[in-house]
Amino acid sequence: MNTPLYRQLAEHYLSAIQSGTLRPGERMPSVRRLMQQHEVSLSTALQLCRWLEAQGWLEARPRSGYFIRTPRRLTVLAPAAEPATVRQIDPAQYVGIHEKVSAIIAKGQRKVSVNLARATGAPELYPHQQLRQLATSLLRQHPTLLTKAISPGGNPELRAALAKRALDVGISTAASEVVITHGCIEALNLALRAVAHPGDVIAVESPTFYGLLQVLESLGLKALEIPTSPHTGISIEALELAMQTYPNIKAVVVVPHLQNPLGSIMPDSHKQRLLHLCEQHQIPLIEDDSYSALTNGDKIPTAIKHWDKTGNVIYCASLHKIIAPGLRIGWMLAGRWQARVSMFKYAQTRYNEELSQRMMASFLQSTHYERHMRRLRQHLQQQRDKMAEAVAAYFPPETRLSMPDGGVSLWVEMPPECSSQAVFDAALERDILISPGLLYSNSNRFDHFLRINCGAPYSDKLDDAMRTLGHIIANQQKRRAA
Amino acid sequence: MNTPLYRQLAEHYLSAIQSGTLRPGERMPSVRRLMQQHEVSLSTALQLCRWLEAQGWLEARPRSGYFIRTPRRLTVLAPAAEPATVRQIDPAQYVGIHEKVSAIIAKGQRKVSVNLARATGAPELYPHQQLRQLATSLLRQHPTLLTKAISPGGNPELRAALAKRALDVGISTAASEVVITHGCIEALNLALRAVAHPGDVIAVESPTFYGLLQVLESLGLKALEIPTSPHTGISIEALELAMQTYPNIKAVVVVPHLQNPLGSIMPDSHKQRLLHLCEQHQIPLIEDDSYSALTNGDKIPTAIKHWDKTGNVIYCASLHKIIAPGLRIGWMLAGRWQARVSMFKYAQTRYNEELSQRMMASFLQSTHYERHMRRLRQHLQQQRDKMAEAVAAYFPPETRLSMPDGGVSLWVEMPPECSSQAVFDAALERDILISPGLLYSNSNRFDHFLRINCGAPYSDKLDDAMRTLGHIIANQQKRRAA
Ligand SMILES: Cc1ncc(COP(=O)(O)O)c(C=O)c1O
Ligand SMILES: Cc1ncc(COP(=O)(O)O)c(C=O)c1O
């Protein structure tokens, strides 16, 4: 059977779109122009356009004609699968995640054209202008701010401002309980050092962000990876089983909201069950809440700490991803371990610099904060949508993806033949940095996953990068299948 | 025998001086005025003044008359004693230095009128104006400096500038070897974590700064205190003996230049012996060089790292005390442990904030740096002299003190009856904060010592505080002796 003429022409335009010659947002040649150029009838030219439109590659705009777009094929992609909660839990062991991560970081240190490995938004999405103004005016008001010894205990105004922000997630606390840290990562270090000793086992989500796995390894702790749903977070059943099997679990660490990398959000009922389970087994619960303020809509989810009546929850958070990725301001509420954590903080790094602390205090107290957060959430939502569309358009159809309810990244499951290390290497050759799934577990379980940053506004450059990634993955799939 | 009239009058003026009614630097009433006021002869008035002058309380200035001063009685004070190197070395043990330090820090958190507990200079002695200008111009040049994700590995310009500074202390290194840290304290944490495990024994100077004792305790390491000379630093003989006695020493930590609190500077020959001893026993040597740039004169002492050919020395330093006490920029060269330390740094706190790093890079590269250091050294020398004179004038005659060859503090040995804790408490009641000797050892060996900050320009307020301290100590001495 011969391919009809309109389809031949349509394929021609499709390959122009897929190669980037025609870009999303650009105008498609008019019907009149198509008729002239290819010497075809009006009906053929119209059929051509309607077919591309039906496939999702064109969009008709009233009185303006057709425009190129990437098809919204999300519904075509299968959502992420639930983990098997009955699978054998990996024996906790040292596996050298440090070396894996450092190899990846070292490779990624060269300047790349598109960095999709970050876990923050683009610099322009944050209030750089207000922060700059705050910095200059603080320096004017306090001429010796940079040369005066930092007063102990953390800046009181910042601690008060953070105690107030804690109300947003349902936590009522005193400023004096707030410990300021160098990012959430230092908070996690302090929390773990407070409750566990080298050789102890720590239950974590699987997959989980490699930063946590590194912290555990660097502290001589063993990660016990608990199956985690891309939709509802850590499996309470699997965790309960683990607690019965491993008597030496000394803490549970979870990211209940917009888990990195899954994007999952635990339902409130799960959070309460988790809290009670930990209390019952007298195992401290470390809650990493770095991302909750990036949840879609204006209602930030409630922290597990909200229900904590015994001080068994250590709450860790950060302003790094929500206000200023150039600053290292994290914070924590350490419950029963408050004194121990405060002293570790002092012995480890002393206090954060005054200027940054005061900038954050002023910003949090200003009306800019709420406005910024609302805008940031909206931008990120648009950007995630665009990136997801690109995944749907350019990645092989076997790709699986669930849309998270917020945050800065997508967790993409490639066809099972693909290796994230190989995709990482091939992408880097094309000047694109991605975050390979192999970093998110001490096992190889997630080696066919990628975490893709959605922090930057969608652009031709990003579109090119996503198309290139799609090619790389498809090639891998073919080669491995062969 | 009757006290002659001139002596009676002299005692009257002396008590006015000692009570602060007449202050150093003020003019003494003229001879003519004394004659009128006390209705005495010219010769009596002259005798009065000459006697006070002979005692060191007055200074004759040509054509201006007599001025009050505090007597330069330093030669009267015995210098610090050498430690007994053959004494029994304390069994390494947990003694709760954390609790001691936190109790002291907690008490000292209230606002005091005179803070003599610091280990930095006054804010005005540092280049606040240049730093402010640098900050503002960096923010102007790089509008998103505060909101851009920090690039991994530390700012390249700062690393290069520090590699260049390392030449000042005789170390030739590459920028890529420099690890930027949150102050020297983080460098020490990383160094110790790299070479030792909980339960290991670390040899340290005795006395040593409490920050180090806290780090050891917080990491589960045991401090083995080695007798240390106030003049030449750690006793190599005692250390050698310790190495033979304790097979599980996993590192030696020394502050070879302007040791905190002693102020001692190791002779080069000692440094080389120490280096070889450590190499021979295959024990890593951690060199804390926080203060060397504050040594009198323009020749900074040579770092032990200079002679290190095997990478066995981990060099730790900081800009906190020499350029900007409001910033937390430290750095280190980790020798054989470079990779391990870099990864620990990443896992512990990620990287320092970009703005601070760039400020320091620009400042170090500017001509301001050398000029600032020269001025700072001169100011500190004057201030130490003034404070030492005050100790000589106001503290009991049994007080011992050796003048350090630089730095920001004096290590004062009170009469043996005194307790630094009691002096701390009494001083705090009078709104004066001092650093009690009990913090500088896990034993009680230094409880009759105080570390006194000399960071601020001498003033009436400081003079009052020193006089008050002198009273407190004298009272203690009397009460305890009774
Ligand atoms: C879940 C989670 N926790 C903590 C961190 C580290 O946060 P910070 O940059 O505030 O140290 C990250 C960063 O990627 C993260 O994803
Ligand atoms: C000898 C010594 N090392 C390290 C430190 C800590 O230095 P930084 O403030 O750079 O962390 C101090 C501070 O008192 C010190 O005296």
UniProtKB/TrEMBL annotation, chains A, B:
<dbReference type="InterPro" id="IPR004839">
    <property type="entry name" value="Aminotransferase_I/II_large"/>
</dbReference>
<dbReference type="InterPro" id="IPR015422">
    <property type="entry name" value="PyrdxlP-dep_Trfase_small"/>
</dbReference>
<comment type="similarity">
    <text>In the C-terminal section; belongs to the class-I pyridoxal-phosphate-dependent aminotransferase family.</text>
</comment>
<dbReference type="GO" id="GO:0003677">
    <property type="term" value="F:DNA binding"/>
</dbReference>
<dbReference type="GO" id="GO:0008483">
    <property type="term" value="F:transaminase activity"/>
</dbReference>
<keyword id="KW-0808">Transferase</keyword>
<keyword id="KW-0663">Pyridoxal phosphate</keyword>
<dbReference type="InterPro" id="IPR036390">
    <property type="entry name" value="WH_DNA-bd_sf"/>
</dbReference>
<keyword id="KW-0032">Aminotransferase</keyword>
<dbReference type="InterPro" id="IPR036388">
    <property type="entry name" value="WH-like_DNA-bd_sf"/>
</dbReference>
<dbReference type="GO" id="GO:0030170">
    <property type="term" value="F:pyridoxal phosphate binding"/>
</dbReference>
<dbReference type="GO" id="GO:0003700">
    <property type="term" value="F:DNA-binding transcription factor activity"/>
</dbReference>
<keyword id="KW-0805">Transcription regulation</keyword>
<keyword id="KW-0238">DNA-binding</keyword>
<feature type="domain" description="HTH gntR-type">
    <location>
        <begin position="3"/>
        <end position="71"/>
    </location>
</feature>
<dbReference type="InterPro" id="IPR015421">
    <property type="entry name" value="PyrdxlP-dep_Trfase_major"/>
</dbReference>
<dbReference type="InterPro" id="IPR015424">
    <property type="entry name" value="PyrdxlP-dep_Trfase"/>
</dbReference>
<dbReference type="Pfam" id="PF00155">
    <property type="entry name" value="Aminotran_1_2"/>
</dbReference>
<protein>
    <submittedName>
        <fullName>PLP-dependent aminotransferase family protein</fullName>
    </submittedName>
</protein>
<dbReference type="InterPro" id="IPR000524">
    <property type="entry name" value="Tscrpt_reg_HTH_GntR"/>
</dbReference>
<dbReference type="Pfam" id="PF00392">
    <property type="entry name" value="GntR"/>
</dbReference>
<keyword id="KW-0804">Transcription</keyword>
<dbReference type="InterPro" id="IPR051446">
    <property type="entry name" value="HTH_trans_reg/aminotransferase"/>
</dbReference>
